[in-house]
């Protein structure tokens, strides 16, 4: 597994340093959107010709409940400066309550990333319904601005530990990395 | 192959597998097609550069750009390339997969490949239409294409599943939309449950007098339709019925409905109305809803003269028997059919249907919310719906247009856009008010010879025969004053006369006009409980509260929930012909769905990799469809593919990574994430 | 009288940009000319341009027509138009801004008492921190024409009779503080033309 | 109830003295005597805003800062002051630029403003904090038979006031009804009185005043009740001029607080009833005689 991981954490660090000058820093934001609400909102933003920050790259999943915390960790490891998760409003999930599961994972994940030295603004969960294109625009713009202000993601822990965290999966973060609080959180259903 | 990495299912390395055979399969040969969409994409995204970059990606055999990929020649291109270049993966960068994923899967299949060896990239809605800067939009498009190319390496051949569709259809709402949809479906040989919340079908249209622009009588064209509904062998009509719960999915919905008690047996009552005559109330005491409160009725009443079903009902809030239990029950005595049952109770029933048509309609704007018009304060300020009842020959005044004191009005003002086109109430144009206001102007003028003033902001008459009608009303001498009424007040010494202040914007002066009747052309808005109904049916509302169609142009009657269609004003303001047309379209969509008898499901279901499953049962309670069972003998989870809807919640939760989801395998998502992040 | 024809040379694009850049005033581009502002205005009867027309002239950049209009001086800030506007145009605030700019550019009719009142009011508040109404009225009358004063004699007597006319000069204690504050707040960028 | 610092404003020490006197008397009679804000200054009214926005906001904010130092809200009887102070509070919260400039200016004189001070109108305080019931209980001389037209004027209901309906305000109606008087239906409750235009453009202002007075008369009102000293000035002091131009019977104009004071048994002298140009005494005596 470590061997595998070794080859994964290849160049992001180097790439980042090559473009860290504050002025031309453009954050890269990976957006994991559910198919039914937030992806539709992004489509609607398009048909409504809204303008928003071009920093967001959308990856579609069927439900926000499909989002494995490792997707997020992986995105950060590969040079994302921010990750945006978009799902249906509570009560509106196309699959009944996948979004609640996303929320639970998100809360945990946020603690994990903070303990890894990643600022909390870099990970965001937003409920955006299919009709809320304007909200999507606002969130994308805000996030791009927030992260631009933060600057490129600098991982403050040795790559080795980071890989461990990633490999362990955030559903069960290893206590020495995520800290005790996060470990306790797991116990709460 | 990822499975071999064991716990944690780490991602594959960047270029490791690209272009190389996967598990001994033939080498990956990808065709990438970048669409200009006329200038829709090409204006903002440098399509040539995207194509060039795509051509350099590992595994890509050919990259082309083309004006319209969705056109026949565009699809042909894919087909030919598959055949001539031996492509085994296809990526098309164009619009949203919601629009053309099916199209390009079809083209892929037409070339002889499994259609799921295709991946779509959305560079229109997600790039060219939302960005202005050509360079950053192009960079984004390149990233998205790279992600798709990396993803498509890992695609597998999949088969769609077929599930049978129940042939019955539920129509919710018995206005003209629901009636039209139900009749179309029933005439097509399908069984329809038509449910209506009120005691009679007919909806708003039944309250109208004449319809614009032809001035034919609403009742004359609607009543035969209502009768047809009642008599149609394929329609089960249920009035006083509401949906409380919807379970299941397209093709197989289980709808729980609640029948409110009518206290009359529908099968026994013949509508003779002797019970009403016999009621202990000698005359009407309660506001008649159908007459917009302009007449009074008893607690036992027929909803209206043309009601379908022709059956009376009792309002338990008003009937003495319910409040005191000590009524003489003269109605029961009078009924020779023994149809009255005070002990009737609410009844719950479940209906199995394959498709649902929403035809829940609209409500009119409450004029009290625009207090400066004095509605509810000055007695001679009316809503348009009230005036419809006044004009109507079967209405409270027998078709006479008179004021509250019985006098004929001599000057009537009609205020357009009440509640509409206003950021403080409803920002939208309600579409029908200009025409119905002109119609009322004509009818009032005809019946009273009063001076009629129409106060409008913009006169909107786009429709067949509408402009001609506008011209006709203008020629009749109606004052058409362009300006919104700012205030209405009754003078102390003015004999009940109302003074209307308005800027005549064409003259550039404010005019103060005395009228003795003011008609408020109230706009249309979503019903008060639209949000609740939306949740029940798991459909979407647009920001303004109307039910949202799947696509504003190409799927105007579909919703985002398969098998649920929209008809009439629940989707937005419409006039009668438009409503009927849309109801027909919704019925057509439902017919197409159930007529096929089965439907193909996206093969995005999840499966357990049996040898990796530790039997921890984490996934079992997570599944909203109870599709996961635990095989006690083998101590492992098992997914019932028929029940699985493909949300992927279990996949993300599985601690051992032993559940995979077709079309959304971890590897595919990791590759996509890496693809958007990799620096070119 | 100005001829009732305008060419493009009469337009000031700068003025149009300025007016639409006032807070909330970008909405005047969305005006649908319903006339609610005009018809709800208590002073409309005396205006040369209706508020609606003034908004339109502003967005088209007819600077001279707008700043020379009597309308802006008639606005009593009752906010009826602002509250009524279906497109939420802050008409009253725009009127304020137009008054400020007209005073700044000195384009209002001479002897128009309203800007004089505004200036005298400001002077008195800046100096003493409070307004002494009787003094203010007298100053206004002296500056805008003595003839008006004769009509006011009866009125003044009524006030004296009822104990409402006071020649006391009202003032605050910390006048120095006030002056320093008004200095420190700086001047408006908006007024720059 | 948060502490209230009384902010009379300039008019209430001049032409609007009766408003000041009667308010103090009413609050004292209800057991909540008013404490004046120390060293308050003019709010700037509409005139200052017409010249310099920044200075206008600075001027108004000094009062907010003074109140904040005392941890009080401002009790603001004048409609114009109320509007200006509320507008300032909101604008400073919404505009970072103006907020910054004003805070800088306050800082220069050792004042600070965190934004917690609200302007409150006596109508709001009397109906919400003290309550109509408490007023009713305190009434000693019910004003049976007095017919009152309630006139709110413009700036109290528009655009910032949230304590009452902007088309059909009710708070003053409730208070007046509590005195036992009859409140007549008055459609011009919130129409503008012409503000300072009566002075600057008499022909314009007088017509507005005429319409307000005429309508009240036509509705059978004995008196017109007001809540703003400028409204009072226009309707009362200019009434003789109006009557020179238009055919109109005189109608006395009273501050709502004067009417409440009468009902609470405060002597007319202490309420400044004799400060009306159009004397209210005949109407009040006629009513008293009738009731007796």
Description:
The complex is a heterotetramer of chains A (about 190), B (about 675), C (about 190) and D (about 290). Chain A is an alpha/beta fold and about 190 residues long. Chain A has 2 domains: about 25-155, Rossmann fold, CATH 3.40.50; about 160-190, no CATH class. Chain A is built from 8 helices and 4 strands. Chain A has helices spanning about 1-10, 10-20, 40-45, 70-75, 100-115, 135-150, 160-170, 175-185, and strands at about 30-35, 55-60, 80-85, 125. In chain A, α4 (about 70-75) packs antiparallel against α7 and α5 (about 100-115) packs antiparallel against α8. The radius of gyration of chain A is 16 Å and the shape is globular. Mean pLDDT of chain A is about 75; it is low at about 1-20 and about 165-189. Chain B has 5 domains: about 1-160, Rossmann fold, CATH 3.40.50; about 160-260 and about 350-360 and about 525-600, 3-Layer(bba) Sandwich (FAD/NAD(P)-binding domain), CATH 3.50.50; about 275-335, no CATH class; about 365-525, FAD/NAD(P)-binding domain (3-Layer(bba) Sandwich), CATH 3.50.50; about 605-660, Alpha-Beta Plaits, CATH 3.30.70. Chain B has 17 helices and 34 strands. In chain B, α2 crosses α3 (about 95-110), α6 packs across α7 (about 220-230) and α12 (about 435-450) runs parallel beside α13 (about 465-475). Chain D is α/β, with parallel strands linked by helices. Chain D is about 50% helix and about 5% strand. Chain D has 13 helices and 7 strands. In chain D, the strands form 2 sheets. A 4-stranded parallel β-sheet of chain D has the order 5-4-6-7, with helices on both faces. Chain D has a 3-stranded parallel β-sheet with strand order 1-2-3. Chain D starts with a strand and ends with a helix. At the C-D interface, α6, α7, α8, α9 and α10 of C face α2, α3, α5, α8 and α9 of D.
Fold topology:
The complex is a heterotetramer of chains A (about 190), B (about 675), C (about 190) and D (about 290).
Chain A: H1 2-8, H2 12-18, E1 29-34, H3 38-47, E2 56-61, H4 69-77, E3 82-87, H5 98-115, E4 123-127, H6 133-150, H7 159-168, H8 175-187
Parallel strand pairs in A: 1-2, 1-3, 3-4
Helix pairs in contact in A: 3-6, 4-7, 5-8
Chain B: E1 30-35, H1 47-55, E2 60-66, H2 72-85, E3 89-94, H3 97-110, E4 118-122, H4 124-128, H5 134-152, E5 161-164, E6 169-172, H6 176-187, E7 192-195, E8 210-211, E9 216-217, H7 218-231, E10 235-238, E11 241-249, E12 252-259, H8 274-278, E13 286-287, E14 296-297, E15 300-301, E16 313-314, H9 320-323, H10 330-334, E17 347-353, E18 355-358, E19 363-364, E20 381-383, H11 384-391, E21 411-418, H12 433-448, E22 451-456, H13 466-475, E23 479-482, E24 485-490, E25 498-504, E26 509-515, E27 517-522, E28 524-525, H14 530-537, E29 564-566, H15 576-596, E30 598-601, E31 606-608, E32 628-631, E33 636-639, H16 649-653, E34 659-661, H17 666-677
Parallel strand pairs in B: 1-2, 1-3, 3-4, 6-7, 6-18, 7-10, 18-29, 20-27, 21-22, 21-27, 22-23
Antiparallel strand pairs in B: 5-30, 8-9, 11-12, 12-17, 13-14, 15-16, 19-28, 24-25, 25-26, 31-34, 32-33
Helix pairs in contact in B: 1-5, 2-3, 5-17, 6-7, 6-15, 11-12, 12-13
Chain C: H1 13-20, H2 36-40, H3 51-60, H4 63-67, H5 71-74, H6 80-84, H7 91-105, H8 113-128, H9 133-144, H10 147-161, H11 175-184
């Amino acid at each position: 597994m470590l061997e595998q991981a070794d080859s994964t954490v290849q160049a992001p660090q180097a790439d980042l340093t090559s473009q860290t000058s504050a002025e031309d820093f453009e954050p890269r934001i990976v957006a994991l959107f559910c198919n039914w609400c937030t992806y539709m909102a992004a489509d609607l933003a398009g048909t409504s010709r809204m303008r928003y920050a071009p920093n967001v790259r959308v990856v579609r999943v069927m439900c926000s409940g499909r989002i494995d915390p490792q997707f997020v960790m992986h995105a950060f490891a590969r040079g994302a400066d921010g990750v945006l998760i978009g799902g249906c409003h509570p009560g509106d999930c196309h699959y009944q309550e996948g979004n609640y599961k996303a929320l639970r994972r998100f809360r945990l994940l946020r603690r994990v990333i903070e303990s890894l030295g990643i600022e909390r603004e870099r990970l965001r969960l937003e409920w955006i319904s299919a009709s809320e294109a304007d909200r999507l625009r606002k969130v994308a713009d805000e996030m791009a601005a927030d992260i631009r202000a933060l600057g490129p993601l600098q991982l403050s822990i040795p790559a080795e530990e980071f890989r461990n965290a990633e490999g362990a999966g955030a559903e069960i973060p290893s206590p020495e990395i995520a800290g005790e609080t996060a470990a306790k959180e797991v116990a709460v259903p | 192959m990822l499975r071999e990495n064991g716990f944690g299912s780490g991602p594959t390395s960047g270029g490791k597998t690209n272009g190389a055979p996967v598990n001994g399969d033939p080498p990956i040969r990808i065709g990438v097609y970048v669409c200009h969409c006329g200038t829709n994409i090409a204006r903002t995204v440098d399509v040539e550069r995207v194509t060039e970059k795509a051509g350099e990606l590992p595994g890509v055999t050919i990259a082309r750009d083309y004006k319209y990929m969705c056109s026949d020649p565009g699809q042909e291109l894919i087909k030919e390339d598959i055949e001539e270049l031996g492509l085994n993966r296809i990526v098309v960068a164009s619009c949203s997969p919601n629009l053309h994923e099916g199209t390009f899967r079809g083209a892929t299949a037409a070339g002889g490949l499994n259609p799921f060896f295709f991946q779509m990239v959305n560079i229109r809605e997600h790039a060219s239409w939302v960005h202005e800067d050509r360079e950053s939009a192009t960079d984004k498009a390149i990233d998205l294409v790279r992600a798709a190319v990396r993803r498509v390496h890992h695609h597998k051949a999949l088969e769609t599943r077929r599930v049978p569709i129940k042939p019955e259809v539920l129509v919710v709402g018995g206005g003209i939309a629901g009636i039209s949809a139900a009749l179309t479906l029933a005439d097509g040989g399908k069984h329809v449950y038509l449910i209506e919340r009120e005691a009679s079908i007919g909806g708003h249209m039944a309250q109208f007098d004449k319809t614009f622009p032809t001035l034919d009588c609403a009742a004359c064209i609607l009543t035969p339709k209502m009768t047809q509904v009642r008599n149609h062998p394929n329609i089960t009509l249920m009035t006083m019925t509401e949906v409380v719960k919807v379970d299941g999915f397209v093709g197989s919905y289980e709808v729980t409905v609640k029948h409110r008690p009518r206290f009359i047996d529908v099968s026994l009552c013949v509508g003779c109305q002797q019970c009403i005559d016999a009621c202990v109330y000698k005359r009407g005491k309660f506001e008649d809803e159908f007459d917009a409160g302009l007449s009074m009725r008893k607690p036992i009443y027929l909803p209206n003269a043309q009601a379908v079903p022709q059956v009376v009902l009792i309002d338990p809030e008003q009937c003495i028997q319910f409040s005191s239990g000590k009524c003489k029950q003269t109605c029961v005595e009078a009924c020779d059919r023994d149809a009255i049952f005070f002990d009737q109770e609410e009844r719950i029933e479940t209906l199995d249907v394959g498709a649902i048509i929403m035809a829940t309609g609209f409500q009119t704007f409450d004029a009290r919310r625009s207090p400066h018009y004095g509605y509810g304060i000055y007695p001679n300020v009316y809503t348009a719906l009230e005036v419809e009842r006044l004009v109507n020959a079967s209405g409270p005044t027998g078709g006479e247009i008179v004021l509250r004191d019985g006098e004929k009005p001599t000057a009537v003002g009609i205020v357009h856009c009440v509640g509409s086109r206003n950021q403080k109430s409803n920002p939208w144009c309600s579409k029908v008010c200009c025409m119905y206001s002109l119609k009322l102007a004509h009818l009032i003028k005809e019946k009273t010879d009063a001076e009629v003033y129409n106060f409008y902001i913009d006169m909107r008459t786009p429709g067949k025969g509408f402009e001609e009608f506008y011209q006709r009303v203008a020629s009749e001498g109606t004052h058409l004053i362009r300006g919104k009424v700012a205030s209405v007040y009754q003078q102390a010494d003015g004999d009940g006369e109302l003074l209307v202040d308005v800027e005549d914007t064409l003259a550039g002066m404010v005019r103060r006009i005395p009228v003795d009747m003011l008609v408020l052309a109230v706009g249309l808005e979503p019903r008060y409980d639209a949000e609740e109904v939306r949740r029940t049916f798991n459909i979407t509302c647009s920001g303004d509260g109307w039910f949202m169609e799947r696509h504003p142009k190409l799927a105007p009657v579909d919703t985002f929930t398969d098998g649920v269609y929209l008809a009439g004003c629940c989707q937005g303001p419409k006039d009668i012909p438009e409503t009927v047309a849309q109801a027909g379209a919704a019925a057509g969509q439902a017919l197409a769905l159930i007529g096929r008898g089965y439907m193909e499901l996206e093969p995005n279901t999840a499966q357990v990799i049996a040898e990796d499953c530790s039997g921890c049962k984490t996934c079992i309670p997570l599944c909203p469809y109870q599709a996961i069972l635990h095989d006690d003998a083998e101590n492992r989870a098992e997914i019932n593919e028929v029940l699985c809807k493909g949300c992927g919640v279990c996949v993300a939760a599985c601690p051992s990574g032993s559940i995979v989801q077709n079309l959304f395998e971890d590897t595919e998502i990791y590759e996509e994430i890496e693809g958007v992040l990799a620096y070119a | 009288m100005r001829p009732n024809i305008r060419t493009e040379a009469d337009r000031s694009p700068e003025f149009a940009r300025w007016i639409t850049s006032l807070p909330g005033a970008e909405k005047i581009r969305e005006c649908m000319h319903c006339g609610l502002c005009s018809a709800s205005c208590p002073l409309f009867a005396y205006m040369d341009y209706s508020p609606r027309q003034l908004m339109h002239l502003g967005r088209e950049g007819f600077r001279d027509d707008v700043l020379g209009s009597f309308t802006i001086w008639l606005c009593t800030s009752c906010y009826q138009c602002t509250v009524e506007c279906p497109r939420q145009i802050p008409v009253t605030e725009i009127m304020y801004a137009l008054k400020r700019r007209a005073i700044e550019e000195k384009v209002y009719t001479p002897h128009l008492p309203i800007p004089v009142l505004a200036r005298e009011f400001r002077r008195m508040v800046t100096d003493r921190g409070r307004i002494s109404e009787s003094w203010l009225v007298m100053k206004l009358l002296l500056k805008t024409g003595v003839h008006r004063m004769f009509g006011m004699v009866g009125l003044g007597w009524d006030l004296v009779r009822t104990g409402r006319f006071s020649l006391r000069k009202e003032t605050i204690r910390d006048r120095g503080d006030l002056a320093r504050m008004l200095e420190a707040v700086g001047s408006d960028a908006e007024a720059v033309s | 109830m948060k502490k209230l610092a009384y902010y009379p404003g300039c008019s209430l020490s001049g032409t609007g003295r009766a408003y000041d006197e009667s308010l103090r008397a009413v609050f004292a009679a209800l057991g909540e005597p008013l404490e004046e804000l120390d060293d308050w200054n003019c709010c700037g009214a509409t005139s200052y805003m017409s010249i310099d926005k920044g200075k206008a906001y600075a001027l108004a904010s000094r009062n907010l800062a003074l109140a904040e130092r005392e941890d009080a809200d401002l009790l603001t009887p004048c409609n114009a002051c109320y509007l200006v102070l509320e507008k300032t509070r909101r604008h400073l919260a919404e505009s970072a630029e103006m907020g910054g400039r004003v805070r800088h200016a306050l800082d220069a004189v050792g004042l600070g403003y965190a934004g917690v001070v609200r302007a409150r109108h006596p109508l709001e305080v009397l109906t919400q904090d003290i309550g109509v019931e408490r007023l009713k209980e305190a009434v000693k001389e019910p004003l049976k038979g007095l017919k009152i037209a309630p006139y709110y004027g413009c700036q109290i209901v528009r655009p910032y006031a949230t304590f009452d309906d902007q088309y059909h305000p009710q708070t003053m109606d409730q208070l007046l009804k509590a005195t036992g008087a009859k409140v007549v239906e008055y459609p011009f409750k919130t129409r503008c009185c012409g503000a300072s235009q009566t002075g600057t453009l008499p022909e314009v202002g007088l017509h507005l005043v005429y319409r307000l007075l005429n309508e009240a008369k036509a509705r059978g009102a004995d008196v017109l009740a007001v809540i703003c000293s400028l409204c009072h000035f226009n309707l009362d002091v200019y009434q003789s001029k109006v009557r020179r131009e238009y055919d109109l019977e005189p109608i006395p104009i009273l501050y709502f607080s004067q009417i409440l004071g009468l009902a609470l048994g405060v002597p007319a002298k202490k309420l400044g009833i004799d400060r009306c140009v159009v004397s209210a005494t005949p109407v009040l005596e006629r009513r008293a005689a009738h009731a007796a």
